[in-house]
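pls read this stuff:
=====
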Amino acid sequence: MKPGTTYFLGSGNLQMARLDANDQPLGYSDPANATRLELNVETETKEVKSRMRDTFGQTLASATLITDATVAMTFNGVTPDLFANIFLGDLVDITASAGSVTDEAITAHLDKWSAVASPGSGINSVVVTDSTGATTYTENTDYVVDADAGMIKPLSSGSIGEGDSMLVDYAYGALSGDKITGATQPLVNVAIIFSGKNVYTGDAARVEVFKASIRPSSAVDFLSEDTQELQFEGKLITPSGRSWPFEVR
């Protein structure tokens, strides 16, 4: 930061990286739009109050102690890594080629949906038979299909009975991307970098947090009418080999 008095209005990129067991970053995620980055240093004052006759009630000694340092962040842009952090989970790569399944057994629950075990994306070319394969049921008469969800619903108005074992053939599309296994990481330690500028002056601004133990501070509403925000809060920790937990420059 440059010396002298000025005004500050910040803009910039906010990125996080999970830390390994040695507090080394495992790679920073792509920046996502962030609307809040708050750092707060909390203090406590210790005082010695006089009980003597001539100075009763006066402060004889005072010391201010740093008791905590915290961070709070809000994102309204999302990335797979941010979702993994908000769900305290792991990010797992998933890849499946297009293929087909023959004779997957499903128990019929009339007028209720059952999901097939498709490893890919959606289903198509669905054929449903009885447990012997001798009787082929008719789609939209005996059952209906939700192709996108990969689900089948046998109809009480058709020929399938409650509790019958159905054999299902289907094809599925290729699938690639990420999945998050939620609630697997009760402790998420990250490093944080804010690389930005002062909008008023154009001067560079940088915040670097060496270690923070973060947790979600809000729920994720998948049916929100507004843009989803991901909110985090956490404690700043001074890692081994350093004398302070963050820098601002």
